[in-house]
C-alpha cells in the first residue's frame, strides 16, 4: 500500500519534469533551470524537443549579450536541461508539470501513465487554465498529490503563478509548490478549482464582452482597443489581446467557463466561433480581428476594415470659444484642457463664488505644472487669462461649444440642457460629459436635438488622453465632425460609439469589476490575491478593488445598475456585497473605508 502523501516528507523539488514543450512548457523549463532545478523536458514530438532546446539556447544567448548572464552561468543552465520523447524520463522527478493541449482526454492519459512511472510522493501539477483540476485529480491513483500550477505567458517574464487546490489536494503539496514558486521569483496566489481561476476567470469574461461589442458593430476594433488602453491604462486592447492569446484558445476557455457558470457573460460570442472555424485564430495564423504581416508576426497591416487616414468627414462648425458648466473636479479639468489648447473658455457655475473657486483650483493645477517644468510661468498665466468665471449660464450666449460637467443625475442634466437651449446661440454645439446616462434624453430636453452630442472625458481630464464621442440617432453629421476636430485640437484621442449605457469603457470595465466582487463574496479568493493576480497576470495598472475604492463604491454601484437596467442580463446584476458596503456608507477612499480601510487625512 502506498504511503499517503501527507505522511511523506517532501523533497525540495530539485528535479522537475515538464510535459509538453510548446511555448509555455519551454518557458517554464527555462525558469526552472535558471533557478537551479534539474529539468526534464518531455514531448511526444522530436521536433518540439529540438525546438525547445534551440529556444533555450537562443534566450540564454540573448541574456549573455545583455549582461544578465555570464557564459559559465549559461552553460550551467543548459546542462541542467535534458529532453526526451518518452514519459518514463519523468521517473526520478520530484514534481511533474503537465502543459499539454487543453483536452481532458490528453491530460488524463498523461496522468494515468505517470501513475505507473513516478514515485508515490511525486507531485503532479497541471498547467491548465480552463479544465477542472478536481476531475483530473479524481482519475489519478493518488489524487491528493495532484494540483494546478498555472503560469502566465511568457513564463520567464510574468511573475504571477496561480496555485490551484482541489478538495482532494494535500496541504503539504500546496505548500511545496508555493515555496517553489517563491524560489523561482514568482508571486503565487492560492485559488480554488473553477474554470479560469482568478486572472483568466476575470480576463476572459471581459474579452468576450469586447468581442460581442465589436460583433454588434457598436464600435470599430481600433476604437474599442484604444478606449481600453487609454481609458484604463491597459497594455493592450481586448481585441489585439485575443489575437495574441489565440481566438481558438479563448473560445475553448470560455466554453469551459460557461459550462461551469452558465453565466451569459461567459457564453462565447458567436464571432469567436466563426473566426476559429475559419482558421482566423489571431497572430499565429496571420489574421484574426486584425491582419498581420505574416503568421506569428506582431506587425498589423492594413486590411479592408482599416480606417482611412484623414478620411473625408462632413465639414465641422467653427469653434473659437467654449463654455463649461460645472465647478467640480471634472469641470475644472475640462476647462484647463480647453484653455491650454488656446480656446477662450467661460466657466459657469450656480454661483459666482463656486465659479471663482473652480478657477482658483485650475490656477493651482497650472502652478504645479510650472513647478514640474511642464509649462512656463508665462504660458500658465496666459492660460488662466483665457478663463472667465461666471455665476450664470447666461454667460454662454456667445460660445460655439457648451460642455456640461454637472452631477450625474438625469433630471439635473435635462434642466441644464433646457437652459442651454435658451441661452446658447443658434448653431452652438451642446455636449454632455455623462458616463452612464442616455445622451438622447439630454438632447430631447432641447428644441435642437441635432446639436447635442456626448463628450465623455476621463478623470483627471488634463492627464487622460481619451474622449468617447457619443452620437445619438438625432446628432447631425457636422456636429460629430466638429467634436472630432475639437478633440484633435485639445490633443485627445477620440473614439466613436453609440448612445447606450456605459459607452465603450464602462460597459467593459464594470462587469469585470462586478465579477471580481462576486469572487470575494463567494470566498473564492482574497482581495489581495485578486488584485495581485490582475496586476501581475493581466498587466492592469491597479487591481479591481484598488480601482473600486478610488472610483467610489457608490459611483460604481450606480453604473452597475444602469448597465443591468439597459442590457437586462442577470450576470450584470450588482453584487450584493457592493450594495451592502454602499448601504453601510463604505464608499472607498473618500470615506476612509471601502473594500479596504484608509488612514484619515
Automatic annotation (TrEMBL):
Q: In which pathway does it act?
A: Lipid metabolism; butanoate metabolism
Return the InterPro entries for the record: 3-OHacyl-CoA_DH_NAD-bd, 3HC_DH_C, 6-PGluconate_DH-like_C_sf, 6PGD_dom2, NAD(P)-bd_dom_sf
Q: Pfam families under this entry? A: 3HCDH, 3HCDH_N
Give every 3-hydroxyacyl-CoA dehydrogenase C-terminal domain span. 196-292, 502-598
**Segments forming domain 3-hydroxyacyl-CoA dehydrogenase NAD binding:** 15-193, 322-499
Q: Provide the alphabetized UniProt keywords.
A: Oxidoreductase
Q: Which domain of life is it from?
A: Bacteria
NCBIfam families reported in the protein's UniProt record: PRK07819.1
Tell me its family: Belongs to the 3-hydroxyacyl-CoA dehydrogenase family.
Q: What is this protein called?
A: 3-hydroxybutyryl-CoA dehydrogenase
Native organism: Streptomyces lanatus
